[in-house]
Design goal:
Number of strands: 3
Organism: Petrolisthes manimaculis
Oligomer: single chain
Largest sheet: 3 strands, antiparallel
Shape: globular
Strand content: 5-15%
Distance between the termini: 25 Å
Order of helices and strands: HEHHHHEHEHHHHHHHH
Helix content: 55-70%
Structural class: mainly alpha
Protein name: Reverse transcriptase domain-containing protein
Length: 288
């Protein structure tokens, strides 16, 4: 959903078209979905009657609980995002969705429903979030003399870096933004490794001492992995449509075009010595 939202925003900006989104959340969606409606939907989608009967047998009269693992798997199942070019478009869409939800006995959580008109800068937000995550762990982890340096680095990678680079595979970054991310990582690593500010230790030496890679290398790895995943999708999947599609209306500005995701991907392919003309075929034949 994040990738599709970003792609639509970038393409709308490129072709000078307005776009806004409404993100809605449902109240206790899993508890309120009527089971008969689920069986009717499965039948409408062409599922064989024997299959529907089997699924019903697994649900009718069953009582269960949500474990930590299943909670992670379902975390986006009750969210929805729809775009529009005007406030009137969003209003009509909201009314339509609410009508359908009510038919299934569900309600929209108005407290968690938000409207997005312009997306805030990613890099600044991620750096602030990662800095906050580091601060919360400073006393118990990074300044804890009872923990080994290897443990501190592992926590830094698992918590701080994961927060910093969340959804980095879909970012479109300029060199200045990559440098900001690299500076944050270097600053925190030097704090963990107790390297004084006036030391002449190079950035490469810091990374080697911590046994981790640079931020840019991490982003490149995630970007290539995501691009291959999208390429292997069916043509009808929304992420693939958003990657290769264009808006039906709109004109491009005469000034220098902004950097797009596909441009960034081409640069990444060239940087990693992957032929841009054959990368799609390479991604499709990846060994599973």
């Amino acid at each position: 959903m994040i990738f599709c939202t970003r792609q639509l925003q970038a393409k709308s900006l490129e072709q000078q078209q307005p776009v806004m989104f409404i993100f809605r959340d449902l109240k206790k969606a899993f508890d309120k979905v009527p089971r008969p409606a689920m069986w009717a939907v499965l039948a409408r989608f062409g599922c064989p009657p024997d299959f529907v009967t089997l699924v019903r047998g697994l649900h009718d009269g069953m009582v269960g609980r949500t474990t930590k693992k299943s909670l992670i798997e379902k975390q986006y199942a009750d969210d929805n995002a729809t775009p529009g070019q005007t406030a009137e478009d969003l209003q009509r869409t909201a009314i339509t969705y609410n009508t359908v939800y009510e038919r299934f006995g569900m309600q929209v959580n108005t407290d968690k429903t938000k409207v997005l008109i312009q997306h805030p800068p990613d890099v600044e937000n991620r750096i602030r979030a990662a800095h906050s995550a580091y601060g919360r762990l400073s006393c118990r982890v990074f300044n804890n003399h009872a923990l080994t340096m290897a443990t501190k680095i592992m926590v830094f990678q698992a918590i701080v870096l994961s927060t910093l680079l969340y959804a980095c595979e879909i970012w479109t970054l300029y060199r200045s933004e990559i440098q900001s991310l690299e500076c944050f990582q270097q600053y925190k690593l030097r704090q963990i490794l107790k390297i004084p500010w006036n030391s002449h230790t190079t950035n490469v030496a810091v990374l080697n001492q911590a046994s981790i890679t640079s931020v840019e290398a991490n982003i490149i790895r995630h970007r290539l992995r995501w691009a291959g995943h999208v390429q292997r999708m069916e043509p009808s999947r929304l992420p693939k449509i958003m990657l290769y599609g264009e808006l039906a209306n709109g004109t491009r500005q005469r000034e220098a075009p902004k950097l797009l995701y596909k441009d960034q991907l081409k640069r990444t392919l060239a940087l990693t010595n992957i032929d841009p003309s054959s990368w799609e075929q390479t991604a499709r034949v990846r060994a599973t």
